[in-house]
Design goal:
The protein is of the alpha/beta class. It folds into two domains: 187 residues, Rossmann fold (3-Layer(aba) Sandwich); 97 residues, Pantoate--beta-alanine Ligase, Chain: A,domain 2, CATH 3.30.1300. The strands form two sheets. The chain has a six-stranded parallel sheet with strand order 1-4-3-2-5-6, with helices on both faces. Strand 2, helix 2 and strand 3 form a beta-alpha-beta unit. Helix 7 packs across helix 8 and helix 9 packs antiparallel against helix 10. Adenosine monophosphate binds next to helix 2 and strand 5.
């Protein structure tokens, strides 16, 4: 709304009061249907998140950020413990990125009684069991549970409209939350945002801060392999997944988890025949690898 410092709320009642007030102000000022955009994050904000805020700012009257490191979506305690956290820096960045409100609840506020709660959780179904879900059991159930809660908490009152922004960096997450909104009839419009890369090609990620120069170099294997496949797709050549996998495995200590080419909506892998022929429609190359001490994911849309 303005250039002033983003407002911080740490409880459901506080954040709702602010949203209600802002929506009422917008209506009183003549905005018939105020547009409210939510950017859900786990903090440790970087320019990849910045792109979500930029799009949300351009498309909405009010921009809300949530910052919550969601324990339900971590399968490794070590990853959860070492996940970077700096609320003060994040608040400044949200303000810089043009956000109006920050919702940053504690774990106990989100999940009273945790770790024995919440008792009722959302299941991501089959889409949540492939790729990231196969390697990180329960990850997408955790994502769906927290996103459903955030939508319930932060959905603005009528006549406002609600949009939620997700990066293409997490392509499987984007496909799953889109499906969740549809399957559960949640009145929110999902807005995808393009993946942001460093000039080197590395996909920006909060976990990159744990990589040293050597690790950064190795991590580049992921985006290079994706570019290799993308170039093949543009030239109408067969897609050589084995060669792309080898490009990643060539780096010492890098453990490739998966590299697959799938349908962007259903995440179903393309068949051997589809890979051998020129692409008929867009496909999505998904990759994940351990580049110690972190596990990285990346993806690229392949266009015919
Ligand atoms: P996270 O804080 O990692 O949970 O990410 C919050 C949101 O930011 C998710 O929708 C991510 O997909 C998105 N995001 C993270 N990194 C990037 C990036 N490099 N480019 C685009 N979106 C991103």
């Amino acid at each position: 709304m303005t250039d002033q410092q983003a407002l911080l709320a740490t409880t459901t009642s506080a954040v709702r009061a602010i949203i209600d007030e802002k929506v009422a102000e917008l209506v009183a000022a003549g905005t018939a249907r105020p547009k409210v955009g939510l950017v859900p994050t786990m903090g440790a904000l970087h320019d990849g998140h910045g792109a979500l805020f930029e799009q949300a700012r351009a498309e909405n009257d009010l921009v809300i950020a949530s910052i919550f490191v969601n324990p339900l979506q971590f399968d490794q305690p070590e990853d959860y413990e070492h996940y970077p956290r700096d609320l003060e820096a994040d608040l400044e960045l949200v303000t810089e990125y043009g956000g109006d409100i920050v919702f940053a609840p504690s774990t106990q506020h989100m999940y009273p009684g945790f770790p024995d709660a919440p008792h009722i959780r959302v299941s991501a179904g089959q889409m949540g069991q492939m790729f990231e879900g196969a390697s990180r059991p329960g990850h997408f159930d955790g994502v769906c549970t927290v996103v459903a809660k955030l939508w319930n908490i932060l959905m603005p009152p009528p006549p406002a409209v609600f949009r939620s922004y997700f990066g293409r960096k997490d392509a499987q997450q984007l496909a799953i939350v889109t499906r969740m909104a549809k399957d559960l009839n949640i009145d929110v419009k999902i807005r995808p945002v393009e993946l942001v890369r460093a000039p080197s090609g590395l996909a920006l990620s909060s976990r990159n801060v744990r990589l040293d120069d050597h690790g950064m170099e190795k991590a580049l294997g992921l985006s290079k392999a994706l570019h290799f496949l993308s170039d093949q797709a543009t030239r109408g050549e067969p897609l050589d997944i084995s060669a792309a996998r080898d490009m990643i495995r060539a780096h010492e200590n890098v453990d490739l988890d998966y590299l697959e080419i799938v349908d962007p909506d259903t995440l179903t892998p393309l068949t051997e025949e589809q890979l051998a022929a020129p692409l008929e429609r867009e496909a999505l190359a998904l990759v994940a690898a351990w580049v110690p001490p972190v596990r990285l994911i990346d993806n690229m849309l392949l266009s015919p």
